[in-house]
Amino acid sequence: MIIRIFILLLSCLTVFFFGGCRNATPLSLHNQDFQATIRQASAKVFPAVVYIRVVSPNLASGKDEGNIVSGSGVIISPEGEVLTNHHVIDKAREIRCQLYDGSAYPATVLGSDKDLDIALLKLELPTDHAAPLPWAVLSPMNIREGDFVMAMGAPWGLARSVTIGIISCSRRYLDSHGKYSLWYQTDASISPGNSGGPLVNTAGEVIGINTLATLIGGTMGFTVPAEVIQSILPRLRKYGEANWAWLGLELQPLHDFDRNINFDYDHGVMVAGTLPGSPARKAGFQSNDRITALNGQCLDAQQSEDIPEINRKLGLLPFEVPVTFTVWRGDHQQQITVTPIPKGKVDGDEVAFPRWGFTVKTINRFNNPGLYFYSRKGGVFVYGIDEDGNAVSSKLREQDVISTVAGKEVHSLEDLQEIYDEALKNIQHSHIVMFGIVRNGREMQVAIDFRNAKNK
User: Fold this and answer.
1) In this structure, are 376 and 291 located in the same domain?
2) CATH code for position 306
3) Residue range of the domain that includes 108
4) Phi and psi (nearest 5°) for 220?
5) Does residue 143 belong to any structural domain of this protein?
6) I need a surface site. Which of 86, 160, 282, 350 has the fewest CB within 10 A?
7) Catalytic option among 113, 115, 117, 400
8) Is 307 found in the same domain as 281?
9) Residues 256 and 337 in one domain
10) Do the Cβ atoms of 394 and 353 come closer than 8 Å?
11) Which of 299, 323, 342 is the last residue of a domain?
């Protein structure tokens, strides 16, 4: 019965649809025009889309295991610069890009930023490569809801794929992924493997880089806007990173419906708090301060969607150059001067020490605030322990902060590498090494016997 009702309904809809199309020649012409527009736009960008395969280390198990990752990218200059996502090429040992014509070339990383999840690559073309590269225009357009767009890339490793949809939201705020940027939300299908591919408008211009997607349903994808990408491209080329400035200010808008926050002010942005040891805290900022200007220029965040642009403006400030904020504390106006400092890497480096049987990572104040607090000066911590390695029989654990090894202080991966190399040279005389560690604020000693050569 259910199937019968469905067929009857479908028949009625079919009659209605075709009955209404008898005199629909203008609509057919519009459809043809739209199809031609899509094809022309696709033809402008599609040849510049690349399929990326990356070999990167996987140290979480305590061993240096290779990991193969695939993604997408788009060539944005005749010199062979390729835009993709940071997470596609993160810690890559080898990068290869397959072009539209099937040719493949290695690539190097010119610059990368984890905060925006954007990376800039350079194709390593042979000296006798004469054919000009196809490349696409990166264009910060005035995007509106309902605009038609195309997502291009290699979903699930299937190269040279195009999907079509519309802009569902032109200013999407994602709290956990949006410190410096709003997102374009689209219903053009974006799947794993599309990461790093372009979102293209009907003029054949790249309006953003596809980065996030929902795996269930596939109707929500999120794209970093071209305007935001262009703001950091010069820094990626010059420094190899976005080189964000850091003040340690946590900001919130005047009105936040989700958190039931509503400050009765006409303009400004509120200070939610300051981070320990930050320039903002040292300068005297307090929670509930209202900032109205930076160096005389108005700052205003009515809604959460206004916060990323302000954060980006602060992040692009020059280092060690004092800036002055106009601040209201209650009814009292004052000027607070702060000197930005480099934010540094968002994620720490990783190194494997196979004979000891574990991997180590640099402590980062943003990703590892608890470890940073206990270590006081940064340093390194145990990232992974090899279940077949020499460290298993010791009492060493993941997340332990390493303070000393063999009586020598450890402040960096370089310090630990030097001690490790020396220990291997002297293994005939001593095969037990003492580690001074900090675990949840408590100092202790553990010993590792590394005579077992299984993991060398």
Assistant:
1) no
2) 2.30.42.10
3) 49-123
4) -130, 115
5) no
6) 282
7) 117
8) yes
9) yes
10) no
11) 342
CA 65, distance to chain mean position in Å, is 23
Q: Read off the pLDDT of residues 99-133 as tens digits, 9 standing for 90 and up.
A: 999 999 999 999 999 999 999 999 999 988 778 89
Can you read off the two tokens belonging to residue 440?
């949840």
Measured from the Cβ of residue 16, the count of other Cβ atoms closer than 10 Å reads 10
Residue 70 lies in a domain: yes
| Catalytic member of 42, 195, 375, 403 | 195
Tell me the average pLDDT across 406-434. Answer: 89
Instruction: Count how many domains the chain has.
Output: 4
Query: Do the beta carbons of residue 387 and residue 381 sit within 8 Å?
Result: no
Verify that 337 and 288 share a domain, yes or no: yes
Q: Which of 191, 217, 239 lies at the terminal end of a domain, its last residue?
A: 239
Give the pTM.
0.75
Name the maximum alpha-carbon separation found in the chain.
95
Q: What is the CATH number of the domain that holds 88?
A: 2.40.10.10
pLDDT bin (cut points 50, 70, 90) of residue 429 is confident
Same domain, 296 and 385: no
Report the alpha-carbon distance of residue 88 to residue 54 in Å, rounded: 7
87 in catalytic set: yes
Same domain, 330 and 358: no
Residue with tokens 């939300």: 185
Please check whether residues 251 and 335 belong to one and the same domain: yes
Judgement on whether residues 218 and 307 belong to the same structural domain of the protein: no
User: Is the residue at 97 inside a domain?
Assistant: yes
List CB contacts of 226: < 8 A, sequence separation 6 or more.
Answer: 138, 139, 140, 141, 206, 207, 208
Residue 90 annotated among the catalytic residues of the structure: no
Told to judge if 195 belongs to the known catalytic residues of this protein, a careful annotator would answer yes
407: burial class by Cβ within 10 Å (0-12, 13-18, 19+)?
A: exposed
Residue 129 falls within a domain, yes or no? Answer: no
More confident residue, 344 or 441: 441
